[in-house]
Design goal:
The radius of gyration is 23 Å and the shape is elongated. Helix 1 packs antiparallel against helix 2. The protein contains three helices and no strands. By secondary structure, it is mainly α. The relative contact order is 0.12.
Length: 80
């Protein structure tokens, strides 16, 4: 059995072309010139990407504390 785990970022990747083409085509259907309609769709897609990168930024979730990670490192000492 295959289990799929979609995350917020998977949805963002799917919505980028939908927003770009969907809003562009929708605005063009209402009489806006295609160049302006696609530019507005691009700005909306850019806003979606900006939210995913800066507002809801991906972070590494670690279970250990930074102190425990430092204690695992190898200590090298030099003697004269």
């Amino acid at each position: 059995m295959v289990t799929f785990m979609t995350t917020y970022y998977d949805y963002v990747l799917g919505f980028i072309p939908l927003v770009l083409v969907g809003f562009g085509a929708g605005l063009h259907a209402f009489g806006m010139p295609i160049e302006i309609a696609v530019a507005i769709g691009g700005l909306l897609a850019l806003t979606l990407m900006g939210h995913a990168l800066f507002v809801n930024a991906p972070v590494d979730r670690t279970t250990g504390s930074p102190e425990s990670e430092q204690s695992d490192s190898t200590t090298v000492s030099f003697s004269d």
